[in-house]
Amino acid sequence: MTGPQRDRLAAAQAELLRALLAGGEPPAGFDRDRLRIEARALLNKRRGIVAALRPDLVEALGERFRPLFDDYARAHPRREGTRMRQDAAAFAEWAAARGELEPPRKRRWWQRRAT
Amino acid sequence: MERLGVGIGWRPEIDLTVERLPGVDFVEVVAENLRPDHLPESVVLLRERGVPVLPHAVSLSLGGADPVDPARVAHLGALAEVLDAPLVSDHVCFVRAGGLDSGHLMPVPRTREALDVLVANVRAAQADLPVPLALENVAALLDWPGGELTEGRFLAELVARTDCLLLVDVANLHANARNLGTDVDRFLDEIPLERLAYVHVAGGVEHQGVYHDTHAHAVRPEVLEVLARLRERVDPPGVLLERDDDYPADAELAAELAAIRAVVG
């Protein structure tokens, strides 16, 4: 019954989220400044949640946490069904792959350092 | 409508605070953070004391283009049953679209077409819920083009067509007045206040001319002023304070609850 309406709404909402989360073109009719403010607010919220879930990453990265997370987030908009904990873990992997973070240690707490 | 009184959002970070704060008549829990078969001890304690615990959902995406996810509705319904809650709630918003998750409550276009989809989704959710569903107005930083209805009319039509209850967030209303030019008095005149289940109050911050509904700052006087304008029209069955981050000392939360009580009397 609401098929065609759903399709049009789906396209409009997807276009808006692409613009806000994935660097998509600003949809027609929206205020550009407000799109920027909303995009920043969503990014701040996402970064804040990751920081709260993984204080170890905030500590390890220090001042680099914010710019690195923002680069990661823009390149990896959160997909439907991804939990925030997975998002935080994916960011840690991404940062480690770029050499910004030591990869998770295999060594256990009772083991001596190799050298 | 059931009398609820003055309440506060229960969060794991402030569980002890919520338990010992004086004058907490009811609480709300974020539905997605609780499992019906593993309720936090603190929530069980509050239920044992007879404090109503209302599940508040953030992920149904009722204003989204996709049909509602029956598993999310079932989870909300199961929580309502285990908590013996008089009602449940979510928002007039969408959170997912095109495979992406916004992580926040996004406003829907105020068009007849978007309203039709919202109505269909709300009816589907209601059909699977054991208790009434209340829907909340959200705070927006941006407005969709092509709006055909004021926010008040949009909500009034939603209630007329679904018989849902309303959860009016006065901080969100203040946000929309500040950010989008929503007329507070007109909004309050247009919505069916006899369907008001309860009210949300929250803190926020003003940044470069835009009000951000953060739930991490103190409640601003302008928000209490909106509550007062609502109170001129109706005696709300309940008013609940939401705080989600940067938790202050107990005394500060107690003072905010007292300020709310002073307004609604």
Automatic annotation (TrEMBL), chain A:
Record-linked Pfam families: SCO6045_C
Protein name in UniProt: SCO6045-like C-terminal domain-containing protein
Source organism: Saccharothrix coeruleofusca
InterPro entries, A to Z: SCO6045-like_C
The SCO6045-like C-terminal domain, residue ranges: 10-96
TrEMBL record, chain B:
Protein name as annotated: Endonuclease
Superkingdom: Bacteria
Gene3D superfamilies registered for this protein in UniProt: Divalent-metal-dependent TIM barrel enzymes
Family matches, as Pfam families: MbnB_TglH_ChrH
Cross-referenced InterPro entries: MbnB/TglH/ChrH, Xyl_isomerase-like_sf
